[in-house]
Structures
1.
Amino acid sequence: MQVLIVHCHPDPSSFNGAMTRITRECLASTGHAVALSDLYAQGFDPVEHSRHYEAPTNSAVFQPLTEQRYAFESEQLAPDVRREVDKLKAADLVIFQFPLWWHGMPAMLKGWFDRVFVYGGIYNGERRFDRGMLQGKRALYSFTTGGPAETFSPLGRSGDIAKLIWPLHCSLYYVGFDVLPPHPIYGVQGGGLQYQAADAFRKRLEEEKHRWKDRLTGLFEEMPIPFTGWSDWNEAGILLDSHPLRWRG
Amino acid sequence: MQVLIVHCHPDPSSFNGAMTRITRECLASTGHAVALSDLYAQGFDPVEHSRHYEAPTNSAVFQPLTEQRYAFESEQLAPDVRREVDKLKAADLVIFQFPLWWHGMPAMLKGWFDRVFVYGGIYNGERRFDRGMLQGKRALYSFTTGGPAETFSPLGRSGDIAKLIWPLHCSLYYVGFDVLPPHPIYGVQGGGLQYQAADAFRKRLEEEKHRWKDRLTGLFEEMPIPFTGWSDWNEAGILLDSHPLRWRG
């Protein structure tokens, strides 16, 4: 299968850097084709901006969705976005590897969504959710946190991790992905191979490497997170009055 | 009072652009001092990167938190971050104005958090949550969505807006802000003053202007969103076994 890793960390010697190398090696050794988008290494520009549209439909105002659609349809997408769109369309599985910064993705990765999930090319009004253009592909967030695991439990002070990641999952489902449960690695603090706690870093990485490899090779068989879809909603986009999930409690 | 508007939209003629102008005029006319951070106009760099640290503690690896703390303590913060930190510390109220893109902030604004909420300067391990350095200040998210209001209801297909915004609220509370309920403006699609639907845009803006002004002048009297704090948690950062919120249902 074709796997795309979208990697976002400013330091290759970080825990995230090590995780991405493990992912590549493990998948390649089990016969998968692996593509990598290393956003910091590529110097990816995360800012959606009129400068990315050489021949806009309207140069007096900048309406991102209008320009995205036109650029896609007229084959004038910015080259960096075009490359990412092509990688995305070729992938059967996408793994996002990043540190959780301020309760979400680093800006660099958020901008990848802002620019690469092109209106008219990756989704449109009809082709969203379970009719999304990326149906049949799988995606997963693998990330590190600074705070310890307990604090991300439902009653912990860092906030329930399921609630923190839910908006990010919504973005994947919106374009049609089968969304796999995330792979959080908690309590990774200032870790780098050349840093003071190098021994602790290596020990922790060894543990996480085994836990991750055990999961990684089975990702194509995992059950995706259930979401409601078009047949569950009324015309206004609300869960049907008769829907059993209204009584889930 | 001192109000800081952190504005993030690539087009000044957008609905968000109009909202920020309304906010400035209304607050100034009622005697408040208003500062503006117009991130696109400033060309703010949202990418946390080693290039922002001229004299790093370690040039072999890049550990953002270590470098943030050192740069703050040694008065070597990048000038663009220094200016934002100063504005933030001077403000009694911060209003964030932006479009909801991919279930969160645009990358430009996310990067403002990544870079400006400086470790050691805006928070540290002891000074977080209700002991946060920004205690006594208020903050609010004012944003537009493309989808209609109904779809952001608890059973709507766009996702419950309270759940989508919750991680963003966590970031404000983490540094000590009193977090006010957000001000969503739903169903703003491709709107710009020079765009095809100019009449609809002006009519909608007029309605929203009145609704927003009614709220704006009372923001200093509003009740903030309740969060649990240090006295509610045990040493591991989990809600106390005896806490009444465990039985809220």
2.
Amino acid sequence: MNEEIRKVLESVRDGSMTVEEALLRLKIQPFEDLGFAKVDLHRSLRQGAPEVIYGAGKTAEQIVGIIRTMQENGQKQVLITRLDKESAELIRKSVPITYRPEARIGFCGSIPEPDGLGRVLVATGGTSDIPVAEEAALTAEFYGNEVIRLYDVGVAGLHRLLAHKEEIMSASVIIAIAGMEGALASVIGGLADCPVIAVPTSVGYGASFRGLSALLSMLNSCASGVAVVNIDNGFGAGYYANMINHREKKA
Amino acid sequence: MNEEIRKVLESVRDGSMTVEEALLRLKIQPFEDLGFAKVDLHRSLRQGAPEVIYGAGKTAEQIVGIIRTMQENGQKQVLITRLDKESAELIRKSVPITYRPEARIGFCGSIPEPDGLGRVLVATGGTSDIPVAEEAALTAEFYGNEVIRLYDVGVAGLHRLLAHKEEIMSASVIIAIAGMEGALASVIGGLADCPVIAVPTSVGYGASFRGLSALLSMLNSCASGVAVVNIDNGFGAGYYANMINHREKKA
Amino acid sequence: MNEEIRKVLESVRDGSMTVEEALLRLKIQPFEDLGFAKVDLHRSLRQGAPEVIYGAGKTAEQIVGIIRTMQENGQKQVLITRLDKESAELIRKSVPITYRPEARIGFCGSIPEPDGLGRVLVATGGTSDIPVAEEAALTAEFYGNEVIRLYDVGVAGLHRLLAHKEEIMSASVIIAIAGMEGALASVIGGLADCPVIAVPTSVGYGASFRGLSALLSMLNSCASGVAVVNIDNGFGAGYYANMINHREKKA
Amino acid sequence: MNEEIRKVLESVRDGSMTVEEALLRLKIQPFEDLGFAKVDLHRSLRQGAPEVIYGAGKTAEQIVGIIRTMQENGQKQVLITRLDKESAELIRKSVPITYRPEARIGFCGSIPEPDGLGRVLVATGGTSDIPVAEEAALTAEFYGNEVIRLYDVGVAGLHRLLAHKEEIMSASVIIAIAGMEGALASVIGGLADCPVIAVPTSVGYGASFRGLSALLSMLNSCASGVAVVNIDNGFGAGYYANMINHREKKA
Amino acid sequence: MNEEIRKVLESVRDGSMTVEEALLRLKIQPFEDLGFAKVDLHRSLRQGAPEVIYGAGKTAEQIVGIIRTMQENGQKQVLITRLDKESAELIRKSVPITYRPEARIGFCGSIPEPDGLGRVLVATGGTSDIPVAEEAALTAEFYGNEVIRLYDVGVAGLHRLLAHKEEIMSASVIIAIAGMEGALASVIGGLADCPVIAVPTSVGYGASFRGLSALLSMLNSCASGVAVVNIDNGFGAGYYANMINHREKKA
Amino acid sequence: MNEEIRKVLESVRDGSMTVEEALLRLKIQPFEDLGFAKVDLHRSLRQGAPEVIYGAGKTAEQIVGIIRTMQENGQKQVLITRLDKESAELIRKSVPITYRPEARIGFCGSIPEPDGLGRVLVATGGTSDIPVAEEAALTAEFYGNEVIRLYDVGVAGLHRLLAHKEEIMSASVIIAIAGMEGALASVIGGLADCPVIAVPTSVGYGASFRGLSALLSMLNSCASGVAVVNIDNGFGAGYYANMINHREKKA
Amino acid sequence: MNEEIRKVLESVRDGSMTVEEALLRLKIQPFEDLGFAKVDLHRSLRQGAPEVIYGAGKTAEQIVGIIRTMQENGQKQVLITRLDKESAELIRKSVPITYRPEARIGFCGSIPEPDGLGRVLVATGGTSDIPVAEEAALTAEFYGNEVIRLYDVGVAGLHRLLAHKEEIMSASVIIAIAGMEGALASVIGGLADCPVIAVPTSVGYGASFRGLSALLSMLNSCASGVAVVNIDNGFGAGYYANMINHREKKA
Amino acid sequence: MNEEIRKVLESVRDGSMTVEEALLRLKIQPFEDLGFAKVDLHRSLRQGAPEVIYGAGKTAEQIVGIIRTMQENGQKQVLITRLDKESAELIRKSVPITYRPEARIGFCGSIPEPDGLGRVLVATGGTSDIPVAEEAALTAEFYGNEVIRLYDVGVAGLHRLLAHKEEIMSASVIIAIAGMEGALASVIGGLADCPVIAVPTSVGYGASFRGLSALLSMLNSCASGVAVVNIDNGFGAGYYANMINHREKKA
């Protein structure tokens, strides 16, 4: 930042840049304003990952508009989460997207070759947690991670989980997804030697209070390497897993 | 009940009992009124277990009064829970009691020989849960149960728990005690083939909200044979375990 | 477990089993992986009761798949809870099941002769609690228990409850089901000499907060022999009652 | 009110009152301003009962100041609630008051002869609820009601309550006070034919959440004649009972 | 009660009643069992008011069944609350009922002449509270009370309320109904000299949390003569008002 | 007020007004009673702003009735909030209104020229907050304020917000609208030198608990000039902004 | 901002400023880093008000350090909130401050002459709310506002409030402070024509849940001109009132 | 695991290991049982990090016992969290430990040279969050990470945070610690391109509800790379940061 400003100043001193140009340069807005949304075009540079569109509550037209702005600015890879089938089909009439109903995700571009440090393991307590898991898994794959799926391994039948101890031990990051009592995160956290991202789900009834029970459980995990994202936030977990799995040596 | 009333009626018909005597008999109060407390003397008959004194919030004098009333009515075995050291010593000056500080329990009489169907296993997630566990264990012992203690076997270090798989498999009833995320109940519930009584504890901080997290976890257990008592209610769990462990064939 | 492993080891030593065979034997997975679910086939051995399918959130096809896997592995008795009428009819086209709409339960096999220690009493506070009660009652019957139903005996009309004092006194286990203020569990708990399993229901409005009021009441019961399961969890209560009612002498 | 204003207006018209006097009369403040408190002197007229001083959080000096202002304005009967022993003794040095520690109440004047429609019954679930009960009972007595105390009759030992069925049936108003599961209000509400005022108490631990459990129970009572006041609000219940017990025919 | 038993005993002694007859007499069930509901026929005697049918969650057939049982036992006046239009029309095909949609109430029999001590004032904060208010008002009328309606007098426009000060001052009981901040109860409580029954409603949005805000407000009312019933419980308030308005001198 | 009463009194003294006329004058009701609603006609005088109709839960007929009463009393400017399209069209058949679907607002009269102290800035965290924002913006415009809209400037992309620093610095009042974590209010509060009105929205999922998360965030803002209105209360914010933006020197 | 940067750039172009100087000027940190705190020295410029020190949780030494840094940078007026007596006395040994125990506030400098648009009215529901009120009042005075105090005017005795209707009508801003049911804000909001800042207090017991009840009430106020700050946040209210009372015409 | 078992089996087959030895080997308990605690000695192997002792609720004697067992098993590096000064001094009499009061941490061994991928940035919103921050920072340092501290950079004074943009951009992992509204995590999450670990603190008052407000904010962060640990859980954050900062290429 410092260097960039210095260069601008030097150009002004040298006369190779006018004051007006410099002013503009120092204040330039790194996003495009669509009126209803401000598309962030520098994000890929700033955060190393393309912009994501949260589909819930947006019309198909709005989503198409955002995608086009991105593509016109050179962004090939676009992820749309919480996208229902109907919207996906409407969007497809305007721009080519791939849609995966089990993950409620649409995307432009293609799933890249995995290039992370290791594998991302996505585990669920039950079968009802699978939609959240697929959102997490596909997000991680979209950002270049190899993903292993391990579904329906809840702690009430521990042998199902222990049968996969080796996958757990060898993973680079683990996403543990569970509703109801959410104990999966603690048990996996105690077995694994890598960071565990816990995702509470709203699966359950009665005193599960739509995910509150699982959320509190996971926050109180007595295993040390566990951090938590919002209830049902599969995307957030997949994104975070990608960040961890792409850590590199920094000066 | 039916039979008892019939006998009274027959005696009235036969003239062997006056109407006044019968009235008295039908209405007799099976408890003694101490003013501040109504001591339940028929409970042993009605529920098969002696009255218990909840010590918290009662003065040593009040407790002594209740014990004496019980003893005068033939009750030898008396249990006093939530009893602090100071009160215990004050009480001991008036009536002989045994005091166990680790369980915050005092009692008159002696621990009987176990005569239950099997063993009661008392397990805790951590060392801080031990006071609640001791309250449960001693209560169960006081009612005639053999108790096995298995402390600090929380799910974050699963091997500690699995090393005791045989004790778990062979127990008649299990009391699973844990604070924080309370996952112990689910994991044990999945391993055991006997009823599990889950006791959430107020151990923890932050989002444990004084036991709420563990309570919700245990209520939402995906393992089937798990029922829950109040936060920190070691006595309730021990008492309930005793009930289960003393089931007999009923006509 | 210990003994089984010893035998394997002795066979290896004796040469009657190859290392590969032993490895397989020690690691064999006691469940079958259907992709979306891991069917637990050893549970009957491990916990003395057949696997149960939680029907909510599963498609008819998934349920049929799980049933078939179970049946191919010799499991005759299968219980499906939270099953709506439509799914039941779809399933029936593929596998023969009996469906009981009042309990939202389907099952393969037949209701066995009761062989428990005594009777399971299922009581409700009001008529709106009956669906939860039927789930509990049918579950208990399916596992071999004689069940007595006692509906609409809420504490606001105490004489309705007291008229059945003898059934209460003679039960082996009682399931007390109530919404709103949930006082039924405490009152029955004070009358009975057997374990009471309390089931809060989401029946009510306003400050019942979908069962929270009844849940808290039951957890705070001043009667000692009361344990609680999740809101509306009729199955859990029936299953737990069965466990208690089938206790046997253990070495 | 209407009449009073009419008279003022007529006096102005007649010249028997100047405009200034009338203005004053119409605007006169029916309270005295002590700076830290505005003492309400017309309340006795307006509401048929003397002002009450809520002692908690007021210094002895402030309380003395308020009492004196009241007495100078002719108020003989003054009630001070939530008054601790120390403050009571300090106050007594300045103005003569009677102090009842078990109710944490002080008062000037004397307990009047009861003149209500009938008796106020004050019942508690346990012995720990007695301080709240005494606050209610003494308040009712101070306002001229005959009070019957019925303590430690919680629903877990129903026979203790039923032994007093006649007192319950013959009361004019009942105050039902309980912590923990708060079921007492519902059971009494079902037995009695008079209004029941339910007072949840903060007695209990764990999931009683300082009275929340009892509060919700009482609000959800399935018995119809039950209304609820704040947790531990013995005064409010006694005051409300007095209001009901002193209803008279109104034109 | 005492007297009744004495007579039975004397008859047995005299031989005018056999032991079997006496047994029956002492244990007779004062309700009729319809299987799905236990109709309480002695309630009118016991509590001075006919049984009420809570319509929500009951089918038209069930309600007809209960009404018929009541009528066959001589009960002419029957109230059905929370009854929707469709059910009301279905019921009307079998038994003649009057239906008032604005109160969601149906009833058999007729509104009696008022015979209470005075008038019941029903006030609401806004127009959206009217359905709850009508439930309260009609209930009170059905039990023989004169009712004054005072709607849309919320505290944000205090002059609307103060314009009716005389009705407030002269009422015998007041039912104050409000959602959102629920301040109406406190303001009326400060103006009136009679008991106020506060009914929080679920009217509002956002932080009203479906009536929780109004409920807490009303429980914390700084005015003394205020007691609270459940959120939206218009019936409970009307019933309680009737009880207060029909107090009589008791021995 | 004082002066007005004095004049009435003087007129009575002078004989230029009868006692009856004076009585009427002193008690005249400044609102009209429509039965279901009490229309407040003096509000414009009292509070400097026309009455607003909260459309939710009112029928089109009721709304038309209220509008007509207002218009007959000279009120030209009427605002109807929370008005859906269907009702708006029904109303339009009877009285001419302008309807703005994006704000769910209808109004009679026209948007006046802005005459406030400065500009009202309306900012949102995301695009889903826009309906609430439009309700706030249009309300402010309707009351005579110039409004600047700044949408989708959530704190996760700080540069989008900072690019508009000048608009923030130069605003007279700012309305900060956000769901989820609600951090927008604090960040703007730290940048601006004018009062910030924070509006939490129910936008989000999981642990946003329908706006609770944003509400708590905003209440706990560490920036000093932030006050909060109810969840989704765009109208309240616009109205409050107008009040601030029209402050004038007061004697 | 824009202008300032332009000037720097022009100076660089003109050679009157070196690149290094310009860099420094553009990046200068407008705060001083004390290690444990970053003292904000430009705030007065940025927000038109001096920095405030939140005293709770800071040692006297830390506070002295912050004050000195401020004073060395020319800041004469410093406000320290939540300051207990002991700390105040310790601080006074190092720097001269005025301490007001009733407001728990200390300050350097002097209370300025009021120069706001009008008066700030500070009203409380009870005497226990006075500490919060004094914090608000003194804060407003410190920022140059005339303050009127109106204490103990809770809605349960409405005449106490109405007696001050003229002060309410003539205020420029009102701070309404109340615990328990918090109705004061709504009632004042309905009477006043100026913005009302509502401050819930933690005064109360039981279901007041430490201010939650008052907080929810105030957020749900049916009066339009009410915004809310955090529980017990007297400072925030005083600061916000100052902002409103010092609005000026903006270009 | 597989390989290890194979080797044991081959040894048994070869006769180089007896069945008893093999049994022992397969079942060996990788922890030592101290009665009150089961010390985990293989954790360093299993999870790549030494055991940590949670000091709260343990006596100095218990802690000394656990340390000694660890040291006897070759563990040099031991971390004790939540350790108060008094206990630390008692422990130091038995075993040499370093104590850091600002972090409430004691440790055996020494802080190693940092060997992570990059730097761990620890940022706090205010000065009161520093104890939690120090716990996080020291934990990270103890596990071999370079830590940068950035305290008191809350979002209400954004320039304080933005002045450190380069440290934020260049960090490998960031721990964002804040109480009250917890917005720091979102703002940093939007600026950084590395994983952010959010730690809500219990700092604040009123509606912060002991950290609940910050917790919900952080879970709802609209920035994508944010995961959350328990309230005040500085250790958990430091441990998790270490895990991320030590990721390596995995096969």
